[in-house]
Amino acid sequence: SRVVVLLSGRGSNFQAIAEAQLPIEIVAVISNRPQAAGLDYARSRGLPAVALDHTAHPDREAFDALLADEIERHRPDLVVLAGYMRILSTAFIARFEGRLLNIHPSLLPMFPGLKTHARALAEGIKIHGCTVHFVTADLDHGPIVIQAAVPVRADDTPDTLAARVLQQEHRIYPQAIRWFAEGRLEINQGHVNLKGDLT
Ligand code: GRF
């Protein structure tokens, strides 16, 4: 599968995906922030790295249209959001629906939105985690592909909890992309069916 990665920052999920030896070709990495470390990593691997600075395009619809055109130039089968920290317009999502994945640092549908680790600690929940899901117009509520849980420890801070969750992100995102590339993900009535065994 041809995969385009969208990111905004550090890019550790992108790095995990790139290193996982998946049956994919990463055909472009695009960031809305020109300084994103993820772009440097892409360049270090010889992958096409594209900066599309959203601050130069204040209109969200206009920026997303440019972004969608740039993505489509690379003819992706799959678009992967890997720490892409901007809400996407509904027109953009409609254009890529069914081939757009996101990773979210909570066990959805708990804690959609931002600051998930601090909110999990504030609630006193004992299990937290991360979710890979297809993106739909309903923010952080698309069909769930895979989740991983981690324990919350009494002395956790948002940072220590985030680090524990991030290790699992780096495991489940490549797994989800592998399933997609193998044609094993089927969306049926808003839910993902995995064809074959859970491997
Ligand atoms: C991850 O925690 C991801 O779940 C969230 O943003 C963070 C991105 O980290 N959406 P990285 O850029 O992949 O290191």
From TrEMBL:
One GO CC term, this protein: cytosol
The Formyl transferase N-terminal domain, residue ranges: 2-177
InterPro entries named in the record: Formyl_transf_N, Formyl_transf_N_sf, GART, GART_AS
Origin organism lineage: Bacteria, Pseudomonadati, Pseudomonadota, Betaproteobacteria, Nitrosomonadales
Site (Raises pKa of active site His): 140
Active-site residues per Swiss-Prot or TrEMBL entry: 104 (proton donor)
Protein's recorded name: Phosphoribosylglycinamide formyltransferase
Reaction(s) catalysed (UniProt annotation): N(1)-(5-phospho-beta-D-ribosyl)glycinamide + (6R)-10-formyltetrahydrofolate = N(2)-formyl-N(1)-(5-phospho-beta-D-ribosyl)glycinamide + (6S)-5,6,7,8-tetrahydrofolate + H(+)
Organism: Thiobacillus denitrificans
UniProt function note: Catalyzes the transfer of a formyl group from 10-formyltetrahydrofolate to 5-phospho-ribosyl-glycinamide (GAR), producing 5-phospho-ribosyl-N-formylglycinamide (FGAR) and tetrahydrofolate.
Associated pathway: Purine metabolism; IMP biosynthesis via de novo pathway; N(2)-formyl-N(1)-(5-phospho-D-ribosyl)glycinamide from N(1)-(5-phospho-D-ribosyl)glycinamide (10-formyl THF route): step 1/1
Annotated positions binding (6R)-10-formyltetrahydrofolate: 60, 85-88, 102
Pfam families the record matches: Formyl_trans_N (PF00551)
